[in-house]
Amino acid sequence: ATAVQITDLGKTYPGATGPALTGVSLSVAPGEIVVLLGLSGSGKSTLLRHINGLETPSTGSVVSLGHDVASLKGRALRELRGRVGFIFQQFELVGPLTVLENVLTGALSTLGGPRVGLFMYPKSLREKALGHLDRVGLLERAYQRADTLSGGQQQRVAIARALMQDPDILLADEPVASLDPESSSQVMALIREIAAERGLTVVCSLHQVDLALSWGDRIVGLRAGEVVLDMTTENLTREQ
Ligand code: ADP
Ligand code: ADP
Prior knowledge:
The structure is a single chain. About 35% of the residues lie in helices and about 25% in strands. It has helices at about 45-50, 75-85, 100-105, 110, 125-135, 150-160, 180-200, 210-215, 235-240, and strands at about 5-10, 20-30, 35, 60-65, 65-70, 85, 170-175, 200-205, 220-225, 225-230. The strands form two sheets. A six-stranded mixed beta sheet has the order 6-7-8-3-9-10, with helices on both faces. The protein has a four-stranded antiparallel beta sheet with strand order 2-1-4-5, with helices on one face. Helix 3 (about 100-105) packs parallel to helix 6 and helix 6 (about 150-160) packs parallel to helix 7. The protein is globular and about 50 Å long. It binds adenosine-5'-diphosphate (2 copies). One adenosine-5'-diphosphate (ADP) binds near residues 13, 16, 42 and 43. One adenosine-5'-diphosphate binds near residues 41, 42 and 45. It comes from Microbacterium paludicola. Keywords: ATP-binding, Cell membrane, Coiled coil, Membrane, Nucleotide-binding, Translocase, Transport.
């Protein structure tokens, strides 16, 4: 079984002068911890966004958790997105809402409605959200505004939010690019711990070689939209 099977993926954005991705093939096994390593503009975000159907391929195919992503619509696409959590460089929290409300928004596509007030969420979901906040070490911040937290804390809230739908895959797009070194290590370590606890498959984009080598099990290097390297970190570090 594979968690993600990408075959000869090409992507050209409407109006762009050249392709963002060319001939990308990649197979990710369940439970694997993969780093996408590349400079800004190399296609990391574009590749991640294909895995949960935020982008559709121009050529080739992306099969996530057994579903050909391009063929999914409506409810089936929402279900897939629920099984594929996503965290972003800029955290993307709703600043004026409380930390707890932000985590709860992670459950919204299963609730099926627009954003609702805290009181609208069933008690079971609130308890689940508080449990995730406890896991990321931020239970005592639950009723604080999200925008009063540090960057590292906000990213931990985003991780808690991503867990609300019990994902099988976690995608992380430059999750520590905005953080100081200490918060970066905390967040990266937390992602690995939670992945191990839950058997999550993780695909995480990074641009720092040293961090990629110390953190990932496997490195997929992208340059100008093409895969130029695909090796386990074990083999890579042995070669050096
Ligand atoms: P990153 O390099 O971290 O992926 P960018 O600053 O390149 O972030 O992109 C930020 C946002 O702008 C993304 O949503 C991306 O899809 C979009 N974007 C990037 N390049 C272009 C472009 N040439 N035209 C339109 N949108 C773009
Ligand atoms: P990375 O995440 O490695 O920084 P991206 O996937 O964001 O790379 O971008 C790859 C290429 O695609 C870049 O040239 C970028 O400008 C372009 N691009 C990204 N998003 C868009 C978009 N929405 N529209 C047009 N071009 C885009």
